[in-house]
Amino acid sequence: MQKSQLSWITGFIWSIADDVLRDLYARGRYLNVV
After folding, report:
1. What is the pLDDT of residue 15?
2. Half-sphere exposure of 11 (CA within 13 A, CB side)
3. More confident residue, 30 or 24
4. What is the pLDDT of residue 21?
5. Mean pLDDT (whole number) for 12-21
């Protein structure tokens, strides 16, 4: 696997993980506020 391909895959995975964690965090804060 080429380095550029690996970095693209890593970035793609991190962007998904970031979205999921942000969503979970936002829901947790929302529940705490309510």
Report:
1. 96
2. 6
3. 24
4. 92
5. 95
Q: Which helix (H) or strand (E) holds 25?
A: helix 3-33
Separation CA 19–CA 15 (nearest Å): 6
> What backbone torsions phi and psi does residue 21 show, to the nearest 5 degrees?
-65, -40
pTM of the complete model: 0.58
Which value, in Å, is the radius of gyration of the alpha carbons in the chain?
A: 15
The tokens describing 22, both together, are 């942000």
